[in-house]
Amino acid sequence: MGYARKVGWVTAGLVIGAGACYYCPGPRYNDWSDDDDDNMHTGGPDLGQDDTILSPQELQKVLCLVEMSEKPYILEAALIALGNIAAYAFNRDIIRDLGGLPIVAKILNTRDPIVKEKALIVLNNLSVNAENQRRLKIYMNQVCDDTITSRLNSSVQLAGLRLLTNMTVTNEYQHMLANSISDFFRLFSAGNEETKFQVLKLLLNLAEIRHSRERSAKVHFFPS
């Protein structure tokens, strides 16, 4: 179904020990996560709205469930909840401060494609944050390799492309994918329409690498 698949069916009670945290249906995942929403209120959760508002204590319970769950369907539900929570700017710092980035990134090693896709979506939403990008850069090579070698046009491949696109919006980390540009062109050539679209967005970001090299060459050729 792609990146904009519906996730509103998840209304799971996530229980750890004696405490429980509840997930309220949030927005669909977007290629670009929502930034601060002027319409958000600061009071208690309103189940009639799309807002996903959890306290740090409740977020910690979700992260613990993600880290400890051995059942794929529970882990999938927890990741969907966390992905919706991470779609809101004010939650991204909290998730990072609670140690959520390495917890989610560790799941990238799973062989379960459904769970892996959900983990990539969470990281994609978290990556719309400069400090989170700085900490997530250590996983870029793994995400890049997994994206290139994943089944062509698969949900995992598309989720990986979206994360890499977010991570290369600025020129801070574009150089880390420089050696993989030919592989992305191969995906563009072989992929379906959706894959081509996502690869094209990534390649447009990576075009800055060539421009930077050309500028460096000119400076070297014409020393002041």
TrEMBL record:
Nucleus recorded as keyword: no
Subcellular location: Mitochondrion outer membrane
Pfam families: Arm_2 (PF04826)
Principal location: mitochondrion
SUPFAM superfamilies assigned: ARM repeat (SSF48371)
Cellular component, GO annotation: mitochondrial outer membrane
Stated name of the protein: Armadillo repeat containing X-linked 3
Gene: ARMCX3
